[in-house]
Write a structure and sequence with these properties.
Elements: H1 2-28, H2 30-41, H3 44-51, E1 53-58, E2 67-68, E3 74-75, H4 77-89, E4 92-97, H5 100-109, E5 114-115, E6 119-120, H6 123-128, E7 129-131, E8 136-138, E9 140-145, E10 161-164, H7 169-176, E11 180-183, H8 187-195, E12 202-205, H9 206-215, E13 221-226, E14 231-234, E15 236-238, H10 244-260, H11 262-271
Parallel strand pairs: 1-4, 1-5, 10-11
Antiparallel strand pairs: 2-3, 6-14, 7-15, 8-14, 9-12, 9-13
Length: about 280
């Protein structure tokens, strides 16, 4: 009986000790969450400097904004802008490629520091994101097959079928004109649909059209008209007090490149024209 009581006492002590140790383990679990909360409240620019790199999201399939050259190297107008911003901060530019629909979501989730991908500044997007000052201006063209004569105004798009990446400013403009928009992954799909006459038209950047026809001189397509206003192109950041210092550096970089004339030179390098001045 004494042995049994002693045994029970020892077992109880063991259980209590195990519970205490388990309790310590449970108390330790929230620590990563605390670190996460601390990261969320830390200034993003300081985080980037500590990390030594800035993560920039882009498609990588939209020439000449972001694309791969014949050697497979990522290049383009927006890649050059991203590299200049990284140089201004004194860190390495780390480019991450993805489909359009996921890029803004990744910005929301904090997977990317910036998105540089010819993003049009709209009222709706400005409510959700903090944008840089415009660094380019996009003339939007309505592109059709060259034997088409029935699309001369935006009103003529009503009831027609177009193709664009869903949620892009081009798709929204087409929908506002009454067109049905087919979602695509990239610009090559768009032009394939147009040239095979599976769509009536596409809305896209004038410089993208010029770049495509330069690479495909046999493409029998044309610009039917331009939308009334050129769109402002900016760099979206997550809307947060922690991103404001980074946004200032981005704006300072754009201003310096514009003043020195380098911004226009980069545009001519990739587009053949200067799209950095307001029309």
């Amino acid at each position: 009986m004494t042995r049994n009581l002693k045994t029970l006492t020892m077992l109880a002590s063991t259980v209590l000790l195990t519970a205490a140790l388990t309790g310590c383990g449970e108390d330790a679990k929230p620590e990563p969450a605390a670190k996460t909360a601390q990261a969320q409240t830390q200034d993003l620019l300081e985080t980037i400097k500590s990390r030594g790199s800035i993560t920039i999201a882009m498609e990588g399939t939209w020439s000449p904004w972001t694309y791969h050259d014949k050697d497979g190297k990522l290049t383009g107008f927006d890649v050059a802008i991203g590299e200049r911003i990284a140089q201004k901060i004194g860190v390495k530019a780390q480019f991450v490629e993805g489909k359009w629909d996921g890029l803004l979501a990744g910005l929301d989730a904090g997977r990317y520091d910036l998105m540089i991908n010819g993003v049009g500044i709209t009222k709706e997007r400005s409510q959700a994101y903090s944008f840089s000052d415009p660094y380019a201006y996009d003339r939007v063209a309505v592109i059709v097959n060259d034997d088409r004569a029935d699309i001369k105004t935006m009103q003529d798009l009503k009831g027609k079928t177009t193709a664009n990446t869903i949620s892009s400013t081009y798709a929204l403009a087409a929908e506002e004109a009454g067109a049905k928009v087919i979602g695509v992954d990239d610009i090559n799909q768009t032009f394939e649909l147009l040239r095979s006459r599976r769509i009536d038209a596409t809305l896209n950047s004038e410089v993208t059209y010029l770049d495509y026809t330069k690479a495909h001189p046999d493409a029998k397509i044309k610009i039917a008209l331009y939308t009334p206003q050129a769109g402002e192109i900016g760099i979206p950041l997550k809307k947060s007090p922690q991103t404001e210092s980074l946004r200032k550096v981005v704006n300072d970089t754009i201003a310096e490149l514009r003043t020195s004339g380098e911004l226009g030179k980069i545009s001519v390098q990739f587009f053949g024209i200067d799209i950095t001045k307001q029309p």
